[in-house]
Specification:
The protein has one domain: Spore Coat Polysaccharide Biosynthesis Protein SpsA, Chain A (Alpha-Beta Complex), CATH 3.90.550. It is built from eight helices and seven strands. Strand 2, helix 2 and strand 3 form a beta-alpha-beta unit. The chain is globular and about 55 Å long. The protein starts with 6 loop residues before the first strand and ends with a helix.
Length: 242
C-alpha cells in the first residue's frame, strides 16, 4: 500500500520455472496482492508459484489452460486487479528482468495523481542504454520512434519496456479483452491510452539481462505484426483527430 492506495502486481509467466521464485520472493512489501498469470506453462512454473504461495499469502495464481500470449496474460491479470478494486496495477514480468527495487519509483507518478500510466524507461537509468544488448537496444529505439508518432506521446523513449504502473480509473476505461495479445501489447496500450487522452509518464528502471532469463521472442514472428499494428495505430489516431 502506498498513500493508502492498494497496489496489485500482475506477473505474467510462461515457462519461467528458473526465475519465478526469485521474482516472487523479492516482491516489495508495498505490494498488497501478487497476481501470477501462468500462461499455459509446460514446465514447473505452476509448482514453483504454489510453493511460494505457501509462504506468502499475497500470491494469487491464475492458470491459463491455453496460451494467451504475454499481452493476453497481462490483460487477464488486469481484469483480476479491476475486480479486486486495486487502485494501481503494476506489471512485473516473471523472467526476472525487472528490478523490484524500482517498483516504488514506478508507481509514484500514479499514486500522486500526476499520471494515469507510468512506463519504465531503461534508457533513462544511469548507463542503462549500454546494459541492453545492442540488437535489442537499436530495435527498441526504432520501435519507440515509430510508437511516438503512432500514439501521439512524443516524450516516450522506451515503448517496449513492459515494467509499468496503471491506475484503476484508466483500466476501467479500457476494453481489456480487445488489447493486442502478443509482444505489441505495450504499443497498442499506448495507442489506446492516447485515444482516451490519458496522462503518461516515464520513470527510470534498471535493465537486467544475462541473469538466467530465456527470451521467447522470435524477431521474424514479431517485427512485421508490430509494424502492421503501428500502422493501424497511426490510422486510428488520424481518425480520432478528424
Amino acid at each position: 500500500m502506498v498513500r493508502k492506495l492498494r497496489i496489485a502486481a500482475v506477473v505474467p509467466a510462461h515457462n519461467e520455472a528458473h526465475q519465478i521464485t526469485t521474482v516472487l520472493e523479492t516482491m516489495p512489501a508495498l505490494v498488497d496482492r501478487i497476481i501470477v498469470v501462468d500462461d499455459a506453462s509446460v514446465d514447473q512454473t505452476t509448482e514453483r508459484v504454489r510453493q511460494c504461495r505457501a509462504a506468502d499469502p499475497r500470491i494469487q495464481l491464475i492458470r491459463c489452460t491455453r496460451r494467451r500470449g504475454v499481452g493476453g496474460a497481462i490483460s487477464r491479470g488486469y481484469a483480476e486487479a479491476v475486480g479486486g478494486e486495486f487502485d494501481v496495477a503494476v506489471v512485473l514480468a516473471g523472467d526476472g528482468q525487472m528490478d523490484p527495487a524500482d517498483l516504488g519509483r514506478l508507481v509514484e507518478p500514479v499514486v500522486s495523481g500526476r499520471a494515469d500510466y507510468c512506463k519504465g524507461n531503461r534508457f533513462a537509468y544511469p548507463n542503462g542504454a549500454h546494459q541492453i544488448p545492442i540488437v535489442r537496444r537499436w530495435g527498441n529505439l526504432a520501435l519507440s520512434a515509430l510508437t511516438r508518432v503512432a500514439s501521439g506521446y512524443r516524450h516516450i523513449s522506451d515503448s517496449q519496456c513492459g515494467y509499468t504502473a496503471i491506475s484503476l480509473a484508466a483500466l476501467t476505461r479500457l476494453d481489456l479483452a480487445s488489447l493486442y495479445p502478443g509482444y505489441g501489447y505495450p504499443n497498442d496500450l499506448l495507442g489506446r491510452l492516447g485515444s482516451l487522452h490519458m496522462r503518461v509518464a516515464e520513470a527510470p528502471v534498471k535493465p537486467r539481462y544475462n541473469i538466467g532469463e530465456r527470451s521467447k521472442m522470435r524477431p521474424s514472428r514479431v517485427v512485421f505484426p508490430l509494424l502492421s499494428l503501428l500502422f493501424r495505430m497511426s490510422l486510428r489516431r488520424l481518425r480520432d483527430n478528424l
